[in-house]
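#onboarding

Welcome to the new folks! Below is a worked example of what a typical request in this channel looks like: someone posts a single protein sequence, and someone else replies with the predicted structure as tokens. Don't worry about understanding the tokens yet, we'll cover that in week two.

Example request:
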Amino acid sequence: MEAYMRSKHFLLALGIGAAVGGVMALLYAPQTGAATRKKLKRNFEDLGDSLEDAAEYLKDQAERLGKEAERFIEASKDQFEDVVDAANGVVKSATKATRSVSKLI
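Example response:
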């Protein structure tokens, strides 16, 4: 709980610091408000493009990992079925051997 409160205070302080820093940067900017707004708009558009690219990349990676997981699961199923078949063969052999020993006794 204490760690949660510390992280909460840290994030609050970080947010306030970022907001104050942003305001100070705008107040002391060497360009006009129109130029600053235009630059901010362009930066936000670039950020949007970057986020779209990142989202597409993550989607592709998720699809690739999903397909890889499906292949792994299928291979595991096949191996499990092989093990079950081998175990059934051992049980049948053991049963036959038990019957043979029973006949001898």
